[in-house]
Amino acid sequence: MAAKKLRSEHPNTMADLPVDQRLVTVAREELLRWYRGHARDFPWRRTRDPYAIWVSEIMLQQTTTQVVEPYFRRFLEQFPTLECLASADESDVLKLWEGLGYYRRAQNLHKTARILRTEFAGQFPRDPAVLMRLPGIGRYTAGAILSLAFNQCVPILEANTRRLFRRWLGASSNGTPVSDRALWQVAEMFLAPRQARKINLALMDVGSVVCLPKAPLCERCPLKSTCQTFQRRLPLEGGSQNRKSSTLRHEVALVLVWKWRLLVQRRSEGRWAGLWEFPRILLQEGGNEVPTPDQIALPELIKHLGLFAELDPLSVRHFARLRHQVTRYRIVLDCFLVRVTQQAKPQLLDEASEIAWVALDALDGLPVPAPIRRMLRPLADALGSGWAD
Q1: Residue 311 has what pLDDT?
Q2: What is the pLDDT of residues 145-168, one digit of tens each?
Q3: Crossing angle of helices 50-60/104-119, nearest 10°?
Q4: 3 state DSSP class of 112
Q5: Is 57 one of the catalytic residues?
Q6: Is the backbone of residue 13 left (phi > 0), alpha (psi -120 to 50) or beta?
Q7: Of the ranges 101-105, 234-238, 264-268, which one carries the lowest mean pLDDT score?
Q8: What is the C-alpha separation between 17 and 13, in angstroms, rounded?
Q9: Residue from 9, 29, 30, 57 carrying the catalytic annotation
Q10: Which of 125, 216, 222, 359 could lock 34 by a disulfide, CB 3.0 to 4.6 Å apart?
């Protein structure tokens, strides 16, 4: 059988990538044999329901399986079917997503559920090109839904399988990257009729628990007899050479207090779109250090917030400094209590509200970002001494 060649359209990638289908067949047989005794067990793998598989795949984007598992269980308890999700309020979906981060995933999940209900009679289309036109569904997610739920011969490619295929091809250490187009074709070559689900799951498992980024367990790998990197003893690619360094961001959250009511606002855009939070200002992006709380010119910051310019602060108190990471940003969030003399633009707390004065315990029922949720305990302690009276 002649070797099949994958030709890249990109001049800076490997132009000729020979892949012998006979090696693929051997690798597939060894892969499936290994999978029978080493398959990982997750709740989303115990079902063929495309809705549950879709939810799990969206949650697993940028998030580990250990973190996702309890969220997945709670989500399906509250929204067990696509119809339940499509009928829900976005705020309820975001509330259940709280702490997972990347909240646009939840918003796209909600939008797509409604589109599937109205335009596809609540069914998932079997054409990957059609699936990929829906919000939040890319090529990987479409392939995961179709292969894991319906056993269709549709390839999937994610971080672990990319690394696995680069090493298997022997192309991970020569300084010339393999095009994504070529890797997708290799992933497709591995598939076989009626076994797409098992093969895709097995590839992800090997990539996740055997073909590790820094210290792969090559002797335990079911693909070692056909892996070019292992057979030719090629060096592995650098583990962290392409990682971008994180950027420091210094932000300030202002908790305005009026007669034991706190001013909150719902973001319409940005990383916390749709969530409730306290007014927040970016002070600094970049650098290596942030000023101490007493070096922050808070009166100027309050005036900077045009919406709150008429509020006269009676007293100010710094009550917390929180640190968290969002994508490539290291964020330092300084939290201030600001007691004010009047209530600015009060609105009812309903779906149309963008600003509202609420009691502290009302925040328990609202979708808020995880860093804001972490603020609530020190905030309650700060308020507990009668500071706002």
Answers
A1: 55
A2: 999 999 999 999 999 999 999 999
A3: 160
A4: helix
A5: yes
A6: beta
A7: 234-238
A8: 10
A9: 57
A10: 222
